[in-house]
Each structure stands twice: as C-alpha cells, then as structure tokens.
C-alpha cells in the first residue's frame, strides 16, 4: 500500500513556476543590459568570459532538483506488512456538572476547575475504552460522543463552563437518562457512567433513575466535589465587574455540596462514590480499578500497516543536481581565470 506521509509539502511545488518566472525576468534584464553595453556580435570579443548557455544550464539543474526535494520532504512510503489489532474495553461516559453551583470556590481554585482537571486526568487513566462526555445542568447534552479520540474528549472537558447551557439548576436524573440513551444497545453490561458533580439536585429523582439504568446494564459511579458549608458563587458580569449569583430577591445565593445524594445514586446504580480531594491521580487510579472489573467487550478489529520510507530515492538525485550546479559555477569561474 502506497501513501505520502506529509502531503502538505506538495504545495511547495508552486515554487517551480515562481522560480521560472523570476529567472525569465532576470534573464531579460540581463540581456537588455548587455544590449545596451554593445551589439550582440561584439559581446564575445568584448566579454569573452560571458557564457549565454551557462545560466540556463544552472537554472535547469536547479529546477529539476526542486520537485525532487519537495517529494523527498513529503516522504513517499510503501507498506508490505499489515497488522490486525483487536481492542477490548467498555463504553464509558463522564457526566460533568456545569451548573452555576460549580462556580463556588470552597475548593481551590473552584469546583469547576477542580472537576475539569480531574476529568482530564481520568481520561488519561481510562485510555483503551470508548469515552464520551456529557455536560448537564437541569438539561443535559452529549458534548462528545463515545470515541477513542481522547484529545478531542479532553478539549471538550477543558472548555466546559456554566455559560454553555443557559438553563440552570441541577437535574441529576436527566443526566443519567440522557447518558443511558447515548449508549449502544449492544454494550449492555459493558458500560459505565461516571458523574462528577457537587451533588445539588433540584429534581430529587436521581436515585430512581440510577436504579433503572442499573437494571438495564449500566453501572453508575459518582465523584463529589465541594464542601457542605454554604458558599457564594462568584461570576463576572459583561462589564467586567465581579459579582455573585443572586437569588430572586436580589441577595447573594449560596450553594452547599451534597455528598449524600451522590452516595445514594452510586448505591442505586451499582457503583461507588468517591470524594474529590486534592489528589486527582490517585482517585483516577481508584476509579480505573473499579472500571477494570467490568466485563470487557471486543471492539472492531483495527488494521495497522508498517510503512517504509523512500524519501532518499528523491533526495539523493536532488543533492547530486545541486552539487552539479555548484560545480559548474566553480568550473566556469576557474576557466575565466
């Protein structure tokens, strides 16, 4: 199988006509200068060192070397060997709470920042599985479908913020239901949901939703972030001024993390509850140990090829042509002496 490793370099082939145009312009200027100097019949007598053919010869060598150098940069490759790799894992969705309560700074730098950092650490720990990301408040959306493109998943997590969903409040049952609908039917008993939240729930139906999801083959784990004491939720207004989320009456609203709700969801969902402290890496490893207990499913077979590079077949003649170009110039200079 043939491929080119860096096809973008082929744009450099546009240099060939540009160089040709520049040389033709230079040649005409040079010829016009010689015509002003003397008649063409007298040039061989007045300037015996001038060789009209030499510039064209050197230019031809340069023009021939340019496309060879470009092809060498693009690196043509050929593969004669194919490998089949069978991947085993589970389908896993991380549901990330982006409600206004996650703005609270009772953990530093904030609940939202701590949750984002932990989730990205968790993605690194769970490579090999299909991972998706759900963002939720009182509504929920799949921001990243189940995928092995972990860089994309982490980019979604890194930009997650309360402003992305205008409807606020927290509905953990909606988060569970939306995530459950995102799994393929074939992945039953090979899938898990990890909810990262402060546990505030305005609907109160999350435990029942987790139990139904568990009966359908989904394990639900929860990760709690934040302190139980009431704390303010800072926000930056459009004019740049710092303020706080306020209640309907105008006073600053407070939020309190609710680990008991998350613990109940985990029990009903057949999973486990984890408190998010300062050690995200150890917590991610503990969750990985839990996920590894889930029976793995075999994903699609992936074929990989081992490619050999053949850039040197083009680089060698290009270098040879450039050396000839330089050599002709030196020979002509020595001959004039």
UniProtKB/TrEMBL annotation:
<feature type="domain" description="VWFA">
    <location>
        <begin position="91"/>
        <end position="291"/>
    </location>
</feature>
<dbReference type="InterPro" id="IPR002035">
    <property type="entry name" value="VWF_A"/>
</dbReference>
<dbReference type="Pfam" id="PF13519">
    <property type="entry name" value="VWA_2"/>
</dbReference>
<dbReference type="InterPro" id="IPR036465">
    <property type="entry name" value="vWFA_dom_sf"/>
</dbReference>
<keyword id="KW-0812">Transmembrane</keyword>
<feature type="transmembrane region" description="Helical">
    <location>
        <begin position="6"/>
        <end position="27"/>
    </location>
</feature>
<keyword id="KW-1003">Cell membrane</keyword>
<keyword id="KW-1133">Transmembrane helix</keyword>
<dbReference type="InterPro" id="IPR050768">
    <property type="entry name" value="UPF0353/GerABKA_families"/>
</dbReference>
<feature type="transmembrane region" description="Helical">
    <location>
        <begin position="310"/>
        <end position="333"/>
    </location>
</feature>
<protein>
    <recommendedName>
        <fullName>VWFA domain-containing protein</fullName>
    </recommendedName>
</protein>
<keyword id="KW-0472">Membrane</keyword>
């Amino acid at each position: 199988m043939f491929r080119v490793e860096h096809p973008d370099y082929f744009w450099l082939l546009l240099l060939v006509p540009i160089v040709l145009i520049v040389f033709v312009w230079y040649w005409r200027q040079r010829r016009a200068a010689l015509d002003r100097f003397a008649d063409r019949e007298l040039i061989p007598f007045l300037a015996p060192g001038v060789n009209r053919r030499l510039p064209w010869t050197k230019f031809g060598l340069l023009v021939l070397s340019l496309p060879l150098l470009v092809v060498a940069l693009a690196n043509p490759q050929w593969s004669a060997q194919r490998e089949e790799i069978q991947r085993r894992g589970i389908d896993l969705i991380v549901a990330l709470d982006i409600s206004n309560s996650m703005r609270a700074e009772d953990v530093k730098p904030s609940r939202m920042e701590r949750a984002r950092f932990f989730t990205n650490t968790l993605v690194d720990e769970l490579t090999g599985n299909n991972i998706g990301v759900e963002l939720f408040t009182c509504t929920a959306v799949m921001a990243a479908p189940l995928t092995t493109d972990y860089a994309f998943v982490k980019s979604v997590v890194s930009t997650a913020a309360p402003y992305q969903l205008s409807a606020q409040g927290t509905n953990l049952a909606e988060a569970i239901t939306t995530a459950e609908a995102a799994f393929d039917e074939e992945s039953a008993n090979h899938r898990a949901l990890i909810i990262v939240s402060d546990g505030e729930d305005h609907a109160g139906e999350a435990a029942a939703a987790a139990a139904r999801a568990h009966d359908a083959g989904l394990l639900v784990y929860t990760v709690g972030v934040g302190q139980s004491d009431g704390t303010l939720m800072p926000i930056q207004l459009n004019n740049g001024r710092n303020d706080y989320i306020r209640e309907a009456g105008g006073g600053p609203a407070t939020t309190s993390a609710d680990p008991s709700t998350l613990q109940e969801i985990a029990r009903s969902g057949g999973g486990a509850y984890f408190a998010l402290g300062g050690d995200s890496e150890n917590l991610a490893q503990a969750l990985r140990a839990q996920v590894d207990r889930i029976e793995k499913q075999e994903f699609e077979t992936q074929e990989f090829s081992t490619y050999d590079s053949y850039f040197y077949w083009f680089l060698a003649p290009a270098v040879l042509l450039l050396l000839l170009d330089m050599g002709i110039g030196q020979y002509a200079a020595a001959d004039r002496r």
